[in-house]
Amino acid sequence: MSKFIIGDQENKDDQLAQAIVNAKDGDVIELQPGTYFTSESPFICTVRQNLTFIGKSSNKDNIKLNCSFTIGAKNIIIFKNLTITFPADGENTLSAYDGAEVYTDNVCINRETSDNWDTIYGQNASFSFKNSQILTGMKTKAIGLSLDNSQIFADNTSIQFLFQRKSKAYLRNSIVTHEFKLRQHSETYFRNLTMVSYVVPHKNDLTVHSGSKFQGQDLVFTSNKPKLRIFKGDFEVNNTNPEPDQLHFKFDNSSKVSVDDKKPFNEDHQNIKKK
């Protein structure tokens, strides 16, 4: 294992690019405070080794990488104490495939572009976020984290727009902003989850569709009128804020919906069973 210390050199961008390209399995890249690569010329790379990137500051804003990372099959990547953003169209800031594993601690991953590509995309991958942020720049319709047959563990993490397809999420003390969608037999299990959705109006704050399951304890909505759509899915939550009678549910007859072990009022009159 080798350690590369980057940031003291005048050509630190070239040094970092070479360190990534030439790294071997298990190498560590330490980054001194500063901005690496420019918004006009960001760095795009595919990582095919097990690597660790560590910012040498407890303030993640002190180390900024204008980069796009693609994590190759079965590789393990660790990011700590830094900010990664991609300022150009046509690429995810971070994508992971085919058994790749991504771990973050005290990291911000953003995408400051005009298009609506996902900030992070995972297919058959695993993510673990701790004390981190996943942002979509100024956009409110773009997806911050899109999971396809993947898995996420998040602790004390904020995610702008979480989308799951055939995926599992385990969330603790975390925030989802704008919108949260589960589709195609996805599962979410949580403890102390806050939905911040008042920033921009969406059709629904939370959508649980097509065999998906949403289950947990302590769910908070900041919206004045939280909207939840459950279609052929399961929703089982204890302790909500606001109270259950202030949540606006719509669900079909095949869905299993309970709040504090009681079925809430269904505003979807077309799917209310006739007595």
From TrEMBL:
Domain of life: Bacteria
Matches recorded under InterPro entries: Pectin_lyase_fold/virulence
Residue ranges of the region described as Disordered: 256-275
SUPFAM superfamilies: Pectin lyase-like
Record-given protein name: DUF1565 domain-containing protein
Gene source species: Companilactobacillus bobalius DSM 19674
